[in-house]
Amino acid sequence: REYGPETLPRARAWAAERGGCADMGLRILARYGTRQDIPLLMDELREAMDRRDWADAASPIEGLGRLRAGEAVPLLKTAWTESVYAFLRPRVLTALTRTAPHTAESYTVEGLWDCEDGVRAEAARFAPLTRETDLRLRRLQHDDAEDPGVRAAAGARLMT
C-alpha cells in the first residue's frame, strides 16, 4: 500500500514515539517530509551511525538528500567513509550530490571506481570532467561487462 504526503502528521507522531511504527514513520518522512523534518532525520541518522546500524541509516540519508539538507553534509561524509554497507553507498553519494555538489566532487571521482553499479552510475552523472575522469568515463561507457545504466550515464556525461 502506498502512503503519501497526507500521512505526514501521523508519520511524525510515529517517528517521535519510537514505537512499533517508528520505522514506517521514518520511511514516510524520508519520502514525503518537509524541511521541518530535517532535525528528526538528522537525529535518526546520527543515532544509526553511533550504533553502526547502516541499514537504519538508509531512510534518513535518502530523506536528507531529497530535502537537500546542507546541514547533513558532515554526517553524510562520515557515512561514506565509515560504512561497510554497500546498499548505503549509492544513497550517500546521491545525498551528497544533492546537498553539496561542490563538496561531492571528490566523492564522485572516487565513486567511478566503486564496486556498486549504483554508485558508478551516480558518479558518472556528476563527476567533474577532468582528463582522469574523462578517461574513466570512456572506459565505463565502452566496457561490455559494465551495467547498462552505468554505460548510459557515462556516455551521457561525456556528451555534456
SSE arrangement, N to C = HHHHHHHHHH
Radius of gyration computed on alpha carbons: 17 Å
Main beta-sheet strand count, sense and barrel state: none
Number of strands: 0
Strand percentage, roughly?
A: under 5%
In percent, how helical is the residue content? Answer: over 70%
Overall shape: it is elongated
How are the elements arranged and paired?
Layout: H1 8-17, H2 22-32, H3 38-51, H4 54-66, H5 73-82, H6 88-99, H7 101-111, H8 117-126, H9 131-142, H10 148-158
Helix pairs in contact: 1-2, 2-4, 3-4, 4-6, 5-6, 6-7, 6-8, 7-8, 8-10, 9-10
Comma- or semicolon-separated keywords:
single chain; 160 residues; mainly alpha; 0% strand; elongated
